[in-house]
Specification:
Metal Transport, Frataxin, Chain A, 2 helices, two-stranded antiparallel ribbon, about 70 residues, 5 strands, alpha+beta, three-stranded antiparallel β-sheet
Protein backbone atom coordinates (compact mmCIF):
# COMPACT_ATOMS: atom_id res chain seq x y z
CA UNK A 1 0.00 0.00 0.00
CA UNK A 2 1.37 3.44 -0.90
CA UNK A 3 2.12 5.96 1.81
CA UNK A 4 1.00 9.61 1.93
CA UNK A 5 3.50 12.01 0.37
CA UNK A 6 4.12 15.72 0.07
CA UNK A 7 2.80 17.23 -3.16
CA UNK A 8 6.20 18.58 -4.17
CA UNK A 9 7.72 15.08 -3.89
CA UNK A 10 4.99 13.65 -6.10
CA UNK A 11 5.64 16.33 -8.73
CA UNK A 12 9.40 15.67 -8.58
CA UNK A 13 8.80 11.94 -9.06
CA UNK A 14 6.56 12.63 -12.07
CA UNK A 15 9.24 14.86 -13.62
CA UNK A 16 11.96 12.28 -12.92
CA UNK A 17 9.84 9.54 -14.54
CA UNK A 18 9.63 11.60 -17.74
CA UNK A 19 6.05 12.81 -17.34
CA UNK A 20 5.19 16.16 -18.86
CA UNK A 21 3.14 19.01 -17.44
CA UNK A 22 -0.12 19.42 -19.37
CA UNK A 23 -2.05 22.15 -17.58
CA UNK A 24 -3.17 23.68 -14.31
CA UNK A 25 -6.81 22.93 -13.57
CA UNK A 26 -9.02 24.64 -11.02
CA UNK A 27 -7.93 22.36 -8.18
CA UNK A 28 -5.41 19.99 -9.78
CA UNK A 29 -2.21 19.91 -11.80
CA UNK A 30 -2.43 17.57 -14.79
CA UNK A 31 0.53 15.50 -16.02
CA UNK A 32 0.84 13.11 -18.98
CA UNK A 33 3.01 9.99 -19.05
CA UNK A 34 5.98 9.66 -21.44
CA UNK A 35 3.99 7.55 -23.93
CA UNK A 36 1.31 10.25 -24.12
CA UNK A 37 -1.64 7.88 -23.68
CA UNK A 38 -2.29 8.38 -19.97
CA UNK A 39 -2.94 11.42 -17.81
CA UNK A 40 -3.24 11.99 -14.09
CA UNK A 41 -4.27 14.84 -11.85
CA UNK A 42 -2.37 15.82 -8.71
CA UNK A 43 -4.48 17.77 -6.19
CA UNK A 44 -3.21 21.08 -4.86
CA UNK A 45 -2.91 20.03 -1.22
CA UNK A 46 0.28 20.11 0.81
CA UNK A 47 -0.09 16.40 1.56
CA UNK A 48 -1.39 13.85 -0.95
CA UNK A 49 -3.21 10.95 0.71
CA UNK A 50 -2.30 7.30 0.25
CA UNK A 51 -5.49 6.66 -1.71
CA UNK A 52 -4.69 9.41 -4.21
CA UNK A 53 -1.11 8.11 -4.55
CA UNK A 54 -2.53 4.69 -5.40
CA UNK A 55 -4.83 6.26 -8.01
CA UNK A 56 -1.94 8.15 -9.61
CA UNK A 57 0.07 4.93 -9.86
CA UNK A 58 -2.89 3.11 -11.48
CA UNK A 59 -3.53 5.94 -13.94
CA UNK A 60 0.06 5.75 -15.26
CA UNK A 61 0.52 2.01 -15.96
CA UNK A 62 3.32 2.53 -18.48
CA UNK A 63 5.75 3.72 -15.77
CA UNK A 64 7.99 1.11 -14.11
CA UNK A 65 6.89 -0.46 -10.85
CA UNK A 66 8.06 1.45 -7.79
CA UNK A 67 8.59 4.79 -9.55
CA UNK A 68 6.61 6.66 -6.87
CA UNK A 69 8.20 5.44 -3.65
Amino acid sequence: MPRPMRRRLVLRALDAAGCTFVREGAEHTVYACPCGEHKTAVPRHTDVTAGVIGSIIKQLPCLPKGWLQ
